[in-house]
Design brief:
Layout lengths: L5 H17 L31 E2 L6 E2 L7 E5 H6 L16 E6 L2 E9 L17 E5 L2 E3 L12 E8 L13 E7 L7 E9 L3 E9 L6 E12 L16 E15 L2 E14 L5 E2 L30 E17 L2 E18 L13 E24 L3 E26 L6 E3 L11 E18 L8 E20 L14 E21 L2 E12 L16 E14 L4 E13 L2 E6 L2 E3 L5 E4 L3 E6 L3 E16 L2 E13 L30 E12 L4 E11 L21 E14 L6 E9 L7 E7 L3 E6 L4 E9 L1
C-alpha cells in the first residue's frame, strides 16, 4: 500500500527525480499527431479549413476529433473574446453542459457540475467534495475556494464530460475541467495588455518570455484586474455588492538539458478580494415586511438599505514540478509533484432585503466563515506508444489538511415602525463561533488504460480498456457544534470522523474510423464522488460515496474539406447513492423521546436510496464558410432524476420523523442549454479586423434539493439569454522590430438582459434570489514585442 505521510512524500519525490535524471536517455518519443495550426490562435488556417484542436484528455497530446470522449474546448481566443477573467465568468454558459455558479452569494467559492452531475450546492464543506475535478497543468485543485482567482495566459480549457474516474480519479463523476497554461518558449517575447471599463473596472497584465540560457527557459506572468460593485451599498464606508479585486503572479522555469529529458517548475500566487451578490426579495412570505424593505422584482442598482459589508479575501499559492524522461522510442516516464495552500475569509451580509422584521428588533445576519487548506499531490505516469498499442499506467498520492469555522450575528436594529434602522454594536473578535471543524484527507490510487488497434478492418477499430483503484481516508473533528463546546447544554463535542472507502472504476471503449474524417465510438465508464461528513450538521456522521455508471455513444465528423465539424454524443447512466442535503429547524430527540439538543439552521446529509438516472444529448457544430469566418453552435439536453427520499432527521419540537419520501430536484441543471457564436478575422493590409459575437441560453434550474414545506413547490430560476461581443483591430505594426498593437472594445451581456438565475423560497420571507450581472463593457489595448 502507498503511504501519504510526509516522509513518504519526500522519498517519493526524491526517487522520482533520481530515476528521471540518472536513467539512460533514449531517443525522443514518437512525434505528436499532425495538426493544422493557425497563427495567433485563429480558428481556420490559410486555406480556410478548420484548424485541428489538440487535447490531453488521455494523458498524451491527441487530436480532439480522434479522441473518443465528449470534450468541449475553449481556446485562448475564446476566453479573450468573451472577456473571461476567471472561472466565475463561465456562468453565462459558454459550454452548455458545464454549469458554473457562485456558492449562494459568494464568488469566493464556486459550484460546478457537468451534465447535471457532481454538484455540491454547499461549497463550504471541508469534509465533502465536488464531483467535477478541476486541474491546472495536471494538478488537482481540491477545494471550491480559490477557483475564482484571475486566470493568467491560458492556452486552453478542456471540459471532459462524463465519468473520468479511470485516468483522473476521484471526484470526477461529472467530468473534469483541465486548464492548460502556455509554456516558456525560450525566445524573447513580451505581451502587455491594459484596459478600462464601466463600474470603475480596470485591468493590466503582462507575459514575458526570456531567451533560453544554458537550456533554461523562463516565463513570467502578472495580472491585476478590478471592478467596483454592481449594486451600491448605501451605508457610508462599506463595500458595495458584487465587486472584485484580483491580482496574481506566476513564474515558470523549463529545463531541457538534452532531447527527451525535461524539468518544468512553476510557482504561482494570487489574491482575490470579492463581495457577495445582492439578494433581492420579489414576493412576500407570511411575515410582515418592514417599510424600509420594499419588494424588488427588477434588478436594482442600489440596495434598499445599507449594511456593514467588507471584502472576502482569498490568498493562494502553489508549487509544481513536472519531470519528463523518454526511456525508449515511444515510452515516456512523467512525474507531477505539487504543493498548494489557500486561505479564504468570507463575509456575507448580502441578504438584508430578505429578512424578518420585528419592531426595535435585530436583523441583517452577517455570515462569516474562515477556510484554510493545504494539499500535497504526487503522480507518476508511464506513457507508451507502439504501432498497435497505446497505453498509460500510473500511481498517485494525495494528502489534504482543511479547517473551517463560522460565525453569524445580526448587524442592524430596526426602529419602532420599520422605516429606518441603525447599525448595532458588535465586535467580530468576540462573537462566538457557531461551528468549527478540521479534517485530513488522504487518497491513494493506481490506474492503467490501453488502446489496442488490431490488424483487421484496415486498422480502423480501436479497443480501449482501463481501470483505476482508489482508496480514500478521511479523519477529523467537528469540535464546535451549534455554538457549543464539549458537554454544554447537552451538546457533546468534539464529534469525530474516521472513515475510509475503496473503489475500482472501469472503462471500456470501442471506437471505429468510418473514414479519415468520421469517427464513431461507444463507451462505458464509471466514476464517483468521495464520501464524507457535513460540518453544518449536529451529528457529523459519515455518508457514503455517490457513483455514476454511464453509457455513451458519439460521433466526430468533419465534412466539405474540413470546413464543417459536427460532434454528437448521447448518454444514459445509473446515478446511485446521491448525496442529498436536508435543512430544517428542529429539536433532536433519541429513540425514547428524550431531548438531545437544539438545532439552528442545521444541514444534514444522507444518501438517496436506490438509483437515479442521468441521460442527455449534446451537439457541437463549427462551420467555416470562408477563410476567417467561423460559425459555432452547441446544445445540451440534460435530464437528471433523483429517487424520492425520506428526510431521516427529526422535525419540529416533537422530533417526529416523517416517513413519506419527498420529491428531490436536480440542482444547477437546466434541461436545455445552448450557445452560438460568430467569429470574423479579415486581413486589412498591415493589420487585421477581428469581431466576435456570442449568445448563450439556458432554460433555468433549481437551486434547492426539495420543497420548503408540504404543499409548497420549490421555485425554479428564470431562463436567461446573454449576449457577449468584441470588435477590434489586431496586429498593427508599430516599427520595424516586429512590435504590434491590438485594440478592441468588448461587452458582456450586451443587451442588458435580466433574469433571476437563482431563486429560493421561505414560507416566512417569500421568494428571493440573485439576478444575473448587468451589462459591462470596456476598451483594451495589447502590445506584443
Amino acid at each position: 500500500m502507498i503511504s501519504t505521510n510526509p516522509r513518504f512524500a519526500g522519498r517519493f519525490l526524491a526517487s522520482s527525480v533520481l530515476a528521471l535524471l540518472i536513467a539512460t536517455p533514449a531517443l525522443a518519443a514518437d512525434p505528436e499527431p499532425a495538426k493544422t495550426t493557425a497563427p495567433d490562435d485563429q480558428k481556420t488556417d490559410s486555406n480556410g479549413s478548420l484548424a485541428d484542436i489538440i487535447v490531453t484528455a488521455q494523458k498524451r497530446p491527441e487530436s480532439l476529433q480522434q479522441t473518443p470522449i465528449a470534450i468541449s474546448v475553449l481556446s485562448a481566443d475564446d476566453l479573450k473574446n468573451r472577456h473571461v477573467q476567471s472561472l466565475v465568468d463561465l456562468q453565462d454558459g459558454a459550454i452548455p453542459s458545464l454549469r458554473v455558479a457562485p456558492f449562494y452569494s459568494r464568488n469566493s467559492a464556486l459550484i460546478m457540475n457537468i451534465r447535471g452531475i457532481g454538484v455540491l450546492a454547499d461549497s463550504n464543506q471541508p469534509a465533502r467534495d465536488q464531483g467535477v475535478g478541476v486541474y491546472i497543468d495536471g494538478v488537482y485543485l481540491g477545494r471550491a475556494q480559490g477557483l475564482g482567482t484571475a486566470l493568467y495566459d491560458i492556452e486552453s480549457i478542456e471540459v471532459l464530460k462524463g465519468p473520468q474516474g479511470t485516468l483522473f480519479g476521484r471526484n470526477t463523476e461529472g467530468g473534469a475541467v483541465s486548464i492548460v497554461t502556455r509554456k516558456p518558449t525560450g525566445e524573447f517575447g513580451l505581451t502587455a495588455t491594459a484596459g478600462i471599463g464601466n463600474f470603475a473596472s480596470h485591468k493590466a497584465e503582462a507575459h514575458l518570455n526570456l531567451p533560453e540560457w544554458h537550456n533554461f527557459s523562463v516565463k513570467l506572468d502578472g495580472i491585476v484586474t478590478k471592478r467596483g460593485g454592481l449594486v451600491t451599498n448605501p451605508l457610508p464606508g462599506q463595500s458595495d455588492f458584487n465587486a472584485f479585486d484580483r491580482h496574481g503572479a506566476h513564474v515558470e522555469v523549463l529545463w531541457k538539458p538534452e532531447d527527451g529529458v525535461s524539468a518544468d517548475y512553476a510557482f504561482d500566487t494570487s489574491y482575490d478580494a470579492s463581495t457577495p451578490l445582492y439578494l433581492q426579495a420579489i414576493t412576500n412570505g407570511t411575515l410582515t415586511r418592514a417599510p424600509a424593505l420594499p419588494l424588488q422584482p427588477e434588478r436594482v442598482r442600489t440596495a434598499s438599505l445599507g449594511v456593514p459589508q467588507q471584502d472576502s479575501i482569498g490568498r493562494t499559492h502553489g508549487h509544481r514540478l513536472t519531470l519528463g524522461l523518454d526511456l525508449a522510442p515511444g515510452l515516456q516516464l512523467k512525474s507531477i509533484t505539487a504543493y498548494r495552500e489557500l486561505d479564504q475569509s468570507q463575509y456575507d451580509n448580502g441578504g438584508q432585503n430578505s429578512t424578518t422584521y420585528k419592531p426595535n428588533g435585530a436583523f441583517s445576519r452577517y455570515s462569516l466563515a474562515g477556510f484554510a487548506q493545504n494539499q500535497f499531490s504526487q503522480e507518476i505516469q508511464l506513457i507508451g506508444d507502439t504501432p498497435r498499442l497505446k497505453y498509460v499506467a500510473g500511481a498517485m498520492a494525495y494528502r489534504e489538511h482543511t479547517t473551517d469555522n463560522a460565525q453569524a450575528f445580526n448587524t442592524m436594529t430596526w426602529n419602532a415602525d420599520g422605516t429606518a434602522a441603525t447599525v448595532a454594536t458588535y465586535n467580530i473578535a468576540t462573537v462566538p463561533f457557531d461551528r468549527a471543524s478540521r479534517i485530513t484527507t488522504r487518497s491513494i490510487g493506481a490506474f492503467g488504460q490501453a488502446t489496442w488497434t488490431p490488424a483487421l478492418l484496415q486498422d480502423r477499430l480501436h479497443v480501449t480498456a482501463g481501470a483505476r483503484y482508489t482508496r480514500d481516508m478521511k479523519k477529523g473533528q467537528l469540535f464546535i457544534v451549534n455554538g457549543k463546546t464539549p458537554n454544554v447544554d447537552g451538546v457533546v463535542a468534539p464529534r469525530g470522523l474516521d472513515a475510509s472507502w475503496s473503489r475500482v472504476d472501469p472503462l471500456l471503449t470501442l471506437a471505429y474510423d468510418v473514414t479519415s474524417d468520421m469517427h464513431v465510438y461507444g463507451k462505458w465508464s464509471e466514476g464517483y464522488k468521495s464520501g464524507g461528513a457535513n460540518s453544518r450538521s449536529l451529528r457529523y456522521a459519515p455518508f457514503n460515496p455517490e457513483t455514476l455508471s454511464m453509457f455513451e455513444i458519439g460521433a466526430k465528423t468533419e465534412l466539405l474539406d474540413r470546413r464543417v465539424r459536427l460532434n454528437l454524443a448521447a448518454y444514459t447512466g445509473a446515478y446511485k447513492a446521491i448525496q442529498i442535503d436536508f435543512q430544517a429547524n428542529y429539536l433532536q430527540v433519541d429513540a425514547q423521546g428524550n431531548l438531545l439538543q437544539t438545532n439552528r439552521t442545521t444541514i444534514e446529509t444522507t444518501n438517496a436510496p436506490g438509483a437515479g438516472r442521468a441521460k442527455g444529448f449534446e451537439a457541437e457544430l463549427t462551420v467555416a464558410p470562408m477563410a476567417g469566418l467561423t460559425f459555432s453552435a452547441s446544445y445540451s439536453y440534460n435530464d437528471v432524476t433523483i429517487p424520492p427520499t425520506v428526510n431521516p432527521f427529526p422535525q419540529g419540537a416533537s422530533g417526529v420523523i416523517v416517513t413519506t419520501p419527498i420529491k428531490i430536484y436536480p440542482v444547477y441543471t437546466p434541461a436545455h442549454a445552448a450557445s452560438g457564436s460568430i467569429d470574423y478575422d479579415r486581413p486589412m493590409g498591415d493589420y487585421r479586423l477581428v469581431a466576435h459575437l456570442d449568445g448563450n441560453y439556458d432554460s433555468g434550474f433549481y437551486a434547492s434539493y426539495n420543497d420548503p414545506a408540504p404543499g409548497v413547490s420549490q421555485p425554479k430560476g428564470e431562463p436567461g439569454f446573454v449576449v457577449n461581443g468584441r470588435i477590434g483591430v489586431a496586429d498593427i505594426a508599430l516599427n520595424d522590430t516586429g512590435a504590434q498593437l491590438s485594440v478592441s472594445a468588448w461587452a458582456r451581456n450586451l443587451l442588458n438582459e435580466q433574469h433571476m438565475f437563482y431563486k429560493g423560497l421561505s414560507t416566512l420571507t417569500g421568494v428571493s434570489g440573485f439576478f444575473n450581472e448587468p451589462r459591462t463593457y470596456g476598451l483594451e489595448a495589447t502590445v506584443k514585442f
